[in-house]
Amino acid sequence: MTIKVLVADDHKLFRQGLIGLMETREDLVEVIGEASTGEEAVQLAERLNPNIVLMDIYMPNGDGLQALREIRSRFPGINVVMLTSSESDEHLYQAVQSGAAGYLLKNLDAEQLFELIGGVVQGEAAMTREMASRLLKDVAKRSVNTERGEEALTERELGVLRLVAIGASNQEIAEKLTISVNTVKSHIRSILEKLQLENRTQAANFAIQRGLVSPFER
Question: Which of 75, 113, 187, 199 is the most exposed place for a label (fewest CB within 10 A)?
Fold first, then answer.
């Protein structure tokens, strides 16, 4: 079976080089399209129905992570593998959380790339040992931080978190605690960082799950 691949990267030179490389392995892969933006990647995924989308992260009109989420939501049968220069642990974690079938760096050896792509259609994750190790360490760190929960927060941050959980706005929190709105924003950033959460909704859910506030107070 020939693997149908869509290449999504905003750098034309890299796209052409990758496509040229894949043409040397026509027994394994067939490039059926190329996209230069996240939006275009989603459109072509719908139209061409590839087996795999090789997706960069840094792209205009919806970055690779946004495109990944949309493709996985709308076309769950399409595998998306991030092929990027970003070594950020946060990008790696977000990609896996969003349903990526793999996370590869652009300095990958060509033969290893083909081997990992071949494994994706067999249900394997396209990830080097180094990246898998980094992911496991990051997940473990996040787990420890979450287990610590409210113990990692100051009394003031706990107060802000309780108010966030009942739906108070930054202005309302500032007035309630007699602090500035900028201070409220600073506390919320600290809360999200300490608890390894992404937004206020997750923070509110965390507070309810930990019994810091009753769901009926919302």
Answer: 199
